[in-house]
TrEMBL record, chain A:
Tetramer of two alpha and two beta chains. Forms complex with the iron protein (nitrogenase component 2). InterPro entries: Nase/OxRdtase_comp1 (IPR000510), Nase_comp1_asu (IPR010143), Nase_comp1_CS (IPR000318), Nase_Mo-Fe_asu (IPR005972). The lineage of its organism: Bacteria, Pseudomonadati, Pseudomonadota, Alphaproteobacteria, Rhodobacterales. PROSITE patterns: NITROGENASE_1_1, NITROGENASE_1_2. Pfam families: Oxidored_nitro. Keywords: ATP-binding, Iron, Iron-sulfur, Metal-binding, Molybdenum, Nitrogen fixation, Nucleotide-binding, Oxidoreductase. This is Nitrogenase protein alpha chain. Its EC number is 1.18.6.1. One of its GO terms (cellular component) is molybdenum-iron nitrogenase complex. Its cofactor is [8Fe-7S] cluster; [7Fe-Mo-9S-C-homocitryl] cluster. Residues 74-481 form the Nitrogenase/oxidoreductase component domain. GO terms for molecular function: ATP binding; iron-sulfur cluster binding; metal ion binding; nitrogenase activity.
From TrEMBL, chain B:
One of its GO terms (cellular component) is molybdenum-iron nitrogenase complex. It is an enzyme of class 1 (oxidoreductase). It comes from the Bacteria. Residues 1-56 form the Nitrogenase molybdenum-iron protein beta chain N-terminal domain. Its cofactor is [8Fe-7S] cluster. Binds 1 [8Fe-7S] cluster per heterodimer. It comes from Rhodobacter aestuarii. Belongs to the NifD/NifK/NifE/NifN family. Keywords: ATP-binding, Iron, Iron-sulfur, Metal-binding, Nitrogen fixation, Nucleotide-binding, Oxidoreductase. This is Nitrogenase molybdenum-iron protein beta chain. InterPro entries: ChlB/BchB/BchZ (IPR050152), Nase/OxRdtase_comp1 (IPR000510), Nase_comp1_CS (IPR000318), Nase_Mo-Fe_CF_bsu (IPR005976), Nase_Mo-Fe_CF_bsu_N (IPR024564). Residues 70-489 form the Nitrogenase/oxidoreductase component domain. Its EC number is 1.18.6.1. PROSITE patterns: NITROGENASE_1_1, NITROGENASE_1_2.
Length: 501, 512
């Protein structure tokens, strides 16, 4: 099918200009700083990907322009939805009006084991359901009572977090005082989190605030029995920044344990409070989602002298490189086992590539995800022979864009905090073979006749991490691209429109 | 190794493989510091006891698994029903991401809306600048015919005045002076999404009808209300009214925008009530609200301009459709055609064919106030017995109305009405006083899992089944959809109960 694709740096640059022209002057000036094409750099190529491009000129982590249809969420989404929500043995109260907790109820697919409503609470929606009188008179008393009622009705809950919604910070409630008081009363960990949705510019500040709350109200709290009783071992590690979406953290744990490491805590997918408390006893922090949890790693390094390293479990090339890099932090026995793990899974990798690569090779992909995946999943596509035409982040910071240069080649379109308008135009002109983004983007893209996968929720599939996950990833990309439905869009009795635009 | 390229296992099977089971068992035993299996079992049983139920029902502060959303999502939904209209929500931006996701997950369709993206500085200084810039940007980028403004709770708490902000934005040239920008204050801490729908609709009428002199005509207006089945239900209403030869305007019709074709073009706007029709709707003879609890304030406006009014409660089934059609006939003087009588007869025929399986079956029902009323009526009409009727966003007044509906039929004698209660309350009710079936939204699946009572998905949101909303639940045709869904659940249960080879399968009947 002949298509007039926009490609190559010059064409992409002029596409950016064309898209910007639709904005009023002030917004145009602001948005121009978020759109770019990666350029050449003198830096050495990344040892694993062999890539080096300059991708750090993009402005990021600044306020969204009003009225443009940003795809971003808020600090509450970053704290409750991402960092705290998956901790399964605590009750997370959406403190404020009913909506925030409702829309985020059971939507991030943080898999967990446990008996929901008895000892686990991830897929439940607890809210103080603010009414007008709570706004006028304050919600602290209601919060106190809420915690009491939770303690009575859910005696096996090991703690409570208070996830602040917008009004809390505006009406001057003192949730910290309530937390301290209730902690004394009931003897359980109570964590107040100031993640009101208007704070910061995206989910990102919510991650940071949530990390700080873990530091202040869990790690620096008096030592719990769970922590005291744990005897650390030489191979103890934490997985940090894996939310077990579709079971990602489990597919990752499998590999780490097979190479002889003990994953004593997973932050925060399928985690318990005890896993958070014991984290400082580990030898090493392994961080997957750098954007959402680097803060706590830096803190543990400073305070407990625990090293941390980033790794990438998307696609066999990065998995093998990560396993070796992790193993290098330990002794030879671990290194040998890591090699054995890589060898064990090589036949699976080979058969997955043999089956799917011929069906996917050369296909182009555009991504728009959160703060990690726009670069991290790139190599999984590389492994399948697919090409990244454009990528962008909802809430990355400069350090993320710097890292992106190790993943995407020169001449890749980069869009930060993309607007609905821009993304639609980019996709329309570039016409990639696949788009990976979120639920809000899924249906518009599919209507355009372009295959799509949700890359936040794995489109209700997953895991995508690890070797087991890579097989699923490859299968899903193949399903999306090679389904016959895309051939049915044109009615056969109509002359196909000329593709040229 | 469980995974292979030949048969790729995803999460639904992968984690049931022995390697993963062992790994998770070890994680639990070594690192989780959880409670013992015995304790979990014991507490689990306790949560299903009468003692627990009493404690649960005595809750005063915490809400758990509520079956309601907040106002602005209702306002966004209402706005999407007007031609070329862009919903613009003034306040924090995360809210809009949530509404759009929520609606897309149900309809499996795009959902367009923008935010004024207020942040900390706006919390201090107010959101006027955000409104001024936001309207200008929305207007330039998305070329709407109308921008419908509503608010998040942030803007409400700091007290932003939409009317004055919009006037100022127009003065500053964000949008042309004569460009329609209806607005509604939609505080999330008052009521629920049904009230947001009402406030938004009132906002539209306030704008469209302002200053206009009414010349009473013959047509009628229909206000559908917040309805997850709107795509098919609005079309069904249109079909029936066309059959009757009635002139009408649906105020807020999302049936096109939430059902656009896949043909290579993304349509951000599609169909919807034209602004012209909306303006002219003041001249209608009457306005019918299909959902009373979605429209109290809107209907006040209607009454004020002198139109006749009629309100229904999500009319489903034979008698409710009869009432609706007879009301239309009464208001317009148009007869109900034989073709509709034929459809009626077919629905009655189907119900008669299946009555033996329906009679005496008990149903717990939850959802929005109008849905629960309409559903309970239809259930009773089939010979079913409502047991628990629960609306988290139902008021005391609703409870009285609900009780009256139940009292009007011997099949309602066993029912209990639960206004303002949530789905964790429902769990206690079902655990202590079980029913044969549960009718509600996808959120009911947790109740199905916990109590073993089969869930029949018949109301918004339906996230985990596809395309249900493409079939109507209103009208005699819609009655068939609902009937079949209920019967499918009944027959599936019968097969499951008789499904064990050599043990229970003496009743595994081929013909029923």
């Amino acid at each position: 099918m002949a298509k007039d694709h926009v490609s190559g740096p010059e064409e992409l640059e002029s596409l950016i200009q064309e898209v910007l022209e639709a904005y009023p002057a002030k917004a145009q000036k602001k948005r121009a700083k978020h759109l770019s094409v990666t350029t050449a750099t003198d830096e050495d190529p990344d040892p694993v990907t062999g890539i080096a491009s300059k991708c750090d000129s993009t402005k990021s982590n600044i306020k969204s322009v009003p009225g443009v249809m940003t795809i971003r969420g808020c600090a509450y989404a970053g704290s409750k939805g991402v960092v705290w929500g998956p901790i399964k043995d605590m009750v997370h109260i959406s403190h404020g009006p009913v909506g925030c907790g409702h829309y985020s109820w059971s939507q991030r697919r943080n898999l967990y084991t446990g008996t929901t409503g008895v000892d686990s609470f991830v897929t439940m929606q607890f809210t103080t359901d603010f009414q007008e009188k709570d706004i006028v008179f304050g919600g602290d008393k209601k919060l106190e009572k809420t915690i009491d009622e939770i303690n009575e009705l859910f005696p096996l809950a090991n703690g409570v977090t208070v996830q602040s919604e917008c009004p809390i910070g505006l009406i001057g409630d003192d949730i910290e005082a309530v937390a301290k008081k209730k902690n004394k009363d009931i003897g359980k960990t109570i964590v107040p989190v100031r993640c009101e949705g208007f704070r910061g510019v995206s989910q990102s500040l919510g991650h940071h605030i949530a990390n700080d709350a873990i530091r202040d109200w869990v790690i620096e709290a008096p030592e719990s029995e769970a922590k005291k009783s744990y005897e650390p071992g030489p191979y103890d590690v934490n997985i940090i920044g894996d939310y077990n979406i579709g079971g990602d953290a489990w597919a990752s744990r499998m590999l780490l344990e097979e190479m002889g490491l003990n994953v004593i805590g997973c932050w925060s997918g399928d985690a318990t409070l005890a896993e958070m408390e014991r984290a400082p006893k580990a030898q090493l922090n392994l961080i997957h989602c750098y954007r959402s949890m680097n803060y706590i790693c830096r803190y543990m390094e400073e305070k407990y002298n625990i090293g941390w390293m980033e790794y990438n479990f998307f696609g066999p090339t990065q998995i093998a490189a990560s396993l070796r890099a992790i193993a290098a932090k330990f002794d030879e026995s671990i290194q040998e086992k890591a090699e054995a793990v890589i060898a064990k899974y090589q036949p699976l990798v080979d058969s997955v590539l043999a089956k799917y690569k011929p069906r996917l090779e050369g296909k182009s992909v555009m991504l728009y995800v959160g703060g990690l995946r726009p670069r991290h999943v790139v190599t999984a596509y590389d492994d399948l022979g697919m090409v990244i035409a454009g990528t962008g982040y909802e809430f990355a910071h400069n350090d993320d864009y710097k890292r992106t240069g190790h993943y995407v080649k020169e001449g890749t379109l980069i869009y930060d905090d993309v607007t609905g308008y821009e993304l639609e135009k980019f996709i329309e002109k570039i016409r990639p073979d696949l788009v990976g983004s979120g639920i809000k983007e899924k249906y518009p893209v599919q209507k355009m006749g372009i295959p799509f996968r949700q890359m936040h929720s794995w489109d209700y599939s997953g895991p995508y991490h690890g070797y087991d996950g890579f097989a699923i990833f490859a299968r899903d990309m193949d399903m999306a691209i090679n389904n016959p439905v895309w051939g049915l869009f044109d009615a056969p009795w109509e002359t196909p429109a000329v593709a040229a635009e | 190794m469980p995974q292979s390229a030949d048969k790729v296992l995803d999460h639904s099977k992968l984690f049931h493989e022995p390697e993963y089971k062992d790994m998770l068992a070890n994680k639990k035993a070594t690192y989780e510091c959880g409670h013992t299996a015995e304790t979990i079992h014991q507490i689990g049983d306790w949560t299903k006891s009468w003692e627990y139920r009493e404690k649960n029902l005595a809750r005063e502060a915490v809400t758990i698994n509520p079956a309601k959303a907040c106002q602005p999502v209702g306002a966004v939904f209402a706005a999407q029903g007007y031609e070329g209209t862009l919903p613009f929500v003034h306040g924090s931006q995360g809210c809009v991401a949530y509404y759009r996701s929520h609606l897309s997950r149900h309809f499996k369709e795009p959902s367009a809306a923008v935010s004024s993206s207020m942040t900390e500085d706006a919390a201090v200084f107010g959101g006027l600048t955000n409104m001024v810039e936001g309207l200008a940007n929305s207007y330039a980028l998305y070329k709407p015919k109308m921008i419908a403004v509503s608010t998040t709770c942030m803007a409400e708490v700091i007290g932003d005045d939409l009317n004055s902000f919009i006037i100022q934005a127009k003065e500053k040239g964000s949008v042309p002076e004569d460009f329609p920008v209806p607005f509604a204050h939609t505080p999330a801490f008052v009521g629920s999404h049904v009230d947001g729908y009402d406030n938004a609709q009132k906002g539209f009428l306030d704008l469209f009808w302002a200053g206009a002199e009414r010349k009473a005509g013959e047509s009628i207006n229909i206000i559908p209300g917040f309805d997850g089945y709107a795509v098919a239900n609005n079309r069904e209403i249109k079909r029936m009214l066309d059959m009757m030869g009635v002139g009408f305007t649906i105020l807020g019709d999302v049936s096109e925008v939430y059902d656009t074709p896949s043909d290579g073009t993304y349509r951000m706007y599609a169909g919807g009530t034209t602004l012209e029709d909306a303006k002219a709707s003041i001249n209608a003879k009457a306005t019918i609200s299909m959902q009373e609890w979605c429209s109290p304030k809107t209907m006040e406006v209607v009454e004020k301009v002198g139109q006749e009014t009629a309100v229904f409660n999500y009319p489903m089934g034979v008698s409710a459709t009869d009432s609706f059609l007879m009301k239309v006939s009464e208001l317009t003087g148009k007869a109900i055609p034989d073709a509709l009588k034929l459809e009626r007869g077919r629905l009655v025929d189907a119900m008669a064919d299946s009555q033996a399986y329906l009679h005496g079956k008990t149903f717990a029902i939850f959802g929005d106030p109008d849905f629960v009323l309409g559903m309970a009526k239809f259930v009773m009409e089939m010979g079913g017995e409502p047991s628990h009727c629960l609306a988290t966003n139902g008021s005391k007044k609703w409870a009285k109305q609900m009780q009256a509906v139940l009292d009007a039929s011997p099949f309602g004698a066993k029912a209990q009405v639960w206004a303002g209660k949530d789905l964790w309350h429902m769990r206690s009710l079902l655990a202590t006083e079980p029913t044969d079936f549960l009718i509600g939204s996808s959120y009911g699946k947790y109740l199905e899992r916990d109590t073993g009572i089969p869930l029949i998905r018949l109301t918004f949101p339906i996230f985990d089944r596809h395309h249900h909303h493409r079939f109507p639940t209103w009208g005699y045709q819609g009655g068939l959809t609902v009937l079949v869904k209920i019967l499918d659940a009944i027959f599936l249960k019968a097969d499951q109960d008789a499904g064990t080879l050599g043990e229970t399968d003496m009743s595994f009947d081929l013909t029923r």
